[in-house]
């Protein structure tokens, strides 16, 4: 089920929240747990058992780790828990990729034949709920948190439908005080509804319309791409993936607020960054913090010699690329960002400070767009071919198919997408006093955006969120 689908907006959402708000407080976690499982089963079917089994497994392991915390057995149980959480992810997401690597290696060595490739259906959101389970067990072992009071309480957290499929990655420590005792105020509900409406508009009106141009460009036959269309495609895909993913986060945070939770922010206008280092402080912030706390720092972080620090960065970003997808293109995307960050650290070490000016912003934007080409392309070869046109082609004409897709409304939405991505939004919030609580302006804007989004939805239908496949 998709947040922007009619079945969710007009059936699941109103029915669920009517039951939730008018139920006794002591039953609300059970309602979230049951509702989230129904939400997941409608899209995942029988493969939802992967998520369902992870609930009692992680809850039991968390309790046992806490009971044995003073002995070495706790570390053994933690290792078992890490392996148990990672095994489904490795099997469903990476089995075929590992097989492909083996076959490619055998082919390179001149060995005929190879291992068979089997069709494996990927459970939606497996990368997200796997990382939740890992952080839960690790934080219990580090004594940052206590295990959830009951199976229902943990199941409610682990399967919570607002952030289940595409984040943000909510750690138990971030909502532990709200798991059992939380008060849902009408002001909080209204703020959540407004945030949800803004996210819905960002997805349906901006991301989906801009995505039409991006898809048309990346779908051009070989030899039809030109310099202008290549840059247009890179720009529109950069806007699409940001607006699409941040829209889901906005909607998830809004739904969380309607349930009484304060989910962490996931984006802070990353395309305003003047360095790739700053970009990763603003892009998918919950994932960046997860890798920082559970991989980068345990490896030594930046507390060791520079060479080891650079190696740690490469390890983190290769894993980050693989987390996004099981393909060579995602590995290259991660490696590119690792290279960017290492180069920036070297320059910062020599110059003591990274420049923050128009040139730095333009350079950062170009570097990020180059990496997005690998992220969007089906193969490394097609990405390299695309980039060769971006930087070395001399044809400035737009292909006919791109001209057809680049209608006046699409041009308008691209312009609005750029403004939304880079304009200091805090100025708008300050101007209309939108920072603390709902206002007349935010209510009117949310209602207007929601109404317009429904008209667009009726005309164009809905598209899945990009990050659903991760």
The count of strands amounts to: 0
Which shape, going by the Cα principal axes?
globular
Instruction: Give the amount of beta strand, in percent.
Output: under 5%
Determine the fraction of residues in helical runs and give it as a percent range.
Answer: over 70%
Give average pLDDT, whole number.
89
Low-confidence spans: none
Q: Largest beta sheet, briefly?
A: none
Please, how many helices?
Answer: 20
Total number of domains:
2
- C-alpha Rg (nearest Å): 23 Å
Order of helices and strands: HHHHHHHHHHHHHHHHHHHH
| Overall SS class | mainly alpha
CA-to-CA gap between the ends? 15 Å
How would you summarize the topology of this molecule?
Elements: H1 6-21, H2 28-44, H3 49-67, H4 73-108, H5 126-141, H6 151-159, H7 161-164, H8 172-179, H9 186-218, H10 227-259, H11 276-282, H12 285-296, H13 306-324, H14 328-351, H15 358-376, H16 380-392, H17 400-405, H18 408-422, H19 425-431, H20 440-460
Descriptive account of the structure:
With 470 residues, this protein is mostly helical. The chain has two domains: 6-182, no CATH class; 188-274 and 355-469, no CATH class. It is 71% helix and 0% strand. It is built from 20 helices and no strands. It has helices at residues 6-21, 28-44, 49-67, 73-108, 126-141, 151-159, 161-164, 172-179, 186-218, 227-259, 276-282, 285-296, 306-324, 328-351, 358-376, 380-392, 400-405, 408-422, 425-431, 440-460. It is globular and about 65 Å long. It starts with 5 loop residues before the first helix and ends in a 10-residue tail after the last helix.
């Amino acid at each position: 089920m998709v947040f922007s689908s009619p079945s969710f907006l007009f059936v699941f959402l109103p029915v669920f929240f009517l039951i939730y708000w008018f139920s006794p407080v002591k039953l609300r976690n059970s309602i979230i747990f049951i509702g989230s499982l129904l939400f997941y089963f409608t899209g995942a079917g029988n493969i939802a058992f992967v998520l369902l089994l992870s609930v009692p497994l992680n809850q039991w392991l968390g309790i046992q780790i806490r009971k044995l915390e003073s002995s070495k057995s706790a570390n053994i149980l933690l290792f078992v828990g890490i392996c148990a959480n990672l095994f489904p992810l490795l099997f469903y997401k990476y089995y075929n990729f590992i097989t492909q690597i083996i076959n490619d290696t055998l082919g390179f060595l001149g060995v005929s034949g190879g291992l068979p490739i089997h069709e494996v259906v990927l459970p939606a959101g497996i990368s997200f709920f796997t990382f939740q389970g890992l952080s839960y067990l690790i934080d219990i072992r580090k004594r940052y948190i206590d295990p959830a009071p009951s199976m229902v309480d943990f199941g409610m957290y682990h399967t919570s439908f607002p952030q289940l499929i595409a984040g943000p990655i909510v750690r138990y420590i971030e909502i532990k005080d709200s798991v059992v005792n939380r008060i849902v105020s009408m002001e909080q509900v209204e703020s959540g509804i407004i945030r949800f409406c803004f996210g819905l508009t960002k997805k349906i009106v901006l991301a989906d319309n801009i995505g039409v141009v991006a898809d048309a460009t990346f779908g051009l036959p070989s030899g039809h791409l030109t310099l202008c269309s290549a840059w247009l495609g890179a720009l529109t895909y950069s806007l699409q993936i940001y607006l699409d993913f941040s829209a889901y986060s906005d909607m998830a945070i809004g739904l969380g607020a309607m349930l009484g939770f304060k989910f962490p922010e996931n984006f802070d206008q990353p395309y305003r960054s003047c360095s790739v280092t700053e970009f990763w402080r603003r892009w998918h912030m919950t994932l960046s913090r997860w890798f920082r706390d559970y991989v980068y720092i345990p490896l030594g972080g930046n507390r060791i010699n520079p060479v080891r620090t650079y190696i740690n960065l490469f390890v983190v970003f290769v894993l980050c690329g693989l987390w996004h997808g099981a393909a060579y293109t995602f590995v290259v995307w991660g490696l590119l960002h690792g290279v960017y960050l290492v180069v920036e650290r070297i320059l910062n070490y020599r110059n003591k400070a990274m420049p923050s000016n128009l040139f730095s912003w333009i350079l950062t934007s170009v570097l990020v767009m180059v990496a997005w080409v690998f992220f969007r392309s089906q193969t490394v070869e097609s990405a390299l071919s695309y980039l060769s046109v971006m930087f070395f082609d001399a044809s400035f004409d737009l292909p006919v198919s791109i001209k057809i897709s680049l209608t006046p409304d699409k041009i308008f939405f691209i312009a609005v997408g750029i403004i939304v991505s880079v304009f200091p939004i805090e100025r708008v919030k300050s101007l209309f006093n939108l920072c603390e609580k709902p206002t007349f302006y935010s209510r009117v804007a949310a209602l207007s955006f929601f109404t317009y989004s429904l008209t667009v939805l009726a005309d164009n239908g809905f598209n899945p969120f990009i990050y659903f496949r991760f």
